[in-house]
């Protein structure tokens, strides 16, 4: 869809920042459609932002521009990345890494069209630089006049750690995300078979289900995350709180 801009940020909704971003886009490109993916990425957390982007991008129409405003590194140059189906406007800080595993980058442009930047006090380049560029991109549908193409090798990327094999069908996984409900999402892809058991902080869980029926409130079980990861869930409660587990926690998984 031409002109669709999807925004992902760590701004939260308490302040005026998100509304300002919307206003700039509509001022520059009145016909652009704007969608908010989330503004609750953990502050300055590239891994969290990369996960949210990976788990959402595929549901957007071809031509969508993802405006990713998580910017902990002021030295990361602002770029436009084009893939076969999408554009990203973001700092070159790795936020597209997990998306690129499925939707490879085809070209990357260092943003040079400074005449589109907004003059503003403070170092708020998400507002002053990236947002007006995304708005112009929604009109042009090409990055050629907005930046200088650079080597794809300069695009910063990272990988999540793989589960560590322990032998006899057992792995050491880690929690890569804790969602709003307190579900613990693991770095294990669901391949049609749920684990026989998982163990977190000394608590062993053996019950599993692809669905959520038949459980008592607070009962822990193994399930499938909507984006095809193995997850640990507490029915109508927070598994994270019950297990005292946070992102990065180690989980012993047995198949």
From TrEMBL:
Residues 5-144 form the S-adenosyl-l-methionine hydroxide adenosyltransferase N-terminal domain. InterPro entries: SAM_HAT_C, SAM_HAT_N, SAM_OH_AdoTrfase, SAM_OH_AdoTrfase_C_sf, SAM_OH_AdoTrfase_N_sf. It comes from the Bacteria. Keywords: S-adenosyl-L-methionine. Residues 175-251 form the S-adenosyl-l-methionine hydroxide adenosyltransferase C-terminal domain. Belongs to the SAM hydrolase / SAM-dependent halogenase family. This is S-adenosyl-l-methionine hydroxide adenosyltransferase. It comes from Thermovibrio guaymasensis.
């Amino acid at each position: 869809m031409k002109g669709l801009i999807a925004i992902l940020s760590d701004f939260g909704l308490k302040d005026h920042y998100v509304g300002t971003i919307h206003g700039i886009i509509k001022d520059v490109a009145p016909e652009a459609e704007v969608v908010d993916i989330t503004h609750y990425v953990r502050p300055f957390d590239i891994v969290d932002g990369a996960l949210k982007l990976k788990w959402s991008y595929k549901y957007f129409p071809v031509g969508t521009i993802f405006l990713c405003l998580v910017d902990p590194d002021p030295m990361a140059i602002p770029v436009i990345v084009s893939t076969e189906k999408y554009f990203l406007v973001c700092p070159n800080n790795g936020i597209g890494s997990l998306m690129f595993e499925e939707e490879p980058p085809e070209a990357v442009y260092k943003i040079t069209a400074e005449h589109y930047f907004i003059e503003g006090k403070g170092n708020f380049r998400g507002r002053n630089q990236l947002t007006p560029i995304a708005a112009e991109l929604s009109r042009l549908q090409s990055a050629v006049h907005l930046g200088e193409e650079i080597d794809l090798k300069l695009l910063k990327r990272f990988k999540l750690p793989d589960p560590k094999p322990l032998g006899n069908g057992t792995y050491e996984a880690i929690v890569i995300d804790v969602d709003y409900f307190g579900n613990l999402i693991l770095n294990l892809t669901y391949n049609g078979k749920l684990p026989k058991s998982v163990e977190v902080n000394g608590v062993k869980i053996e019950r599993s289900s692809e669905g959520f029926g038949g459980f008592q409130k607070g009962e822990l079980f193994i399930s499938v995350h909507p984006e095809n990861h193995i997850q640990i869930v507490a029915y109508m409660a927070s598994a994270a709180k019950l297990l005292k587990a946070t992102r990065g926690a180690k989980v012993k998984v047995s198949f």
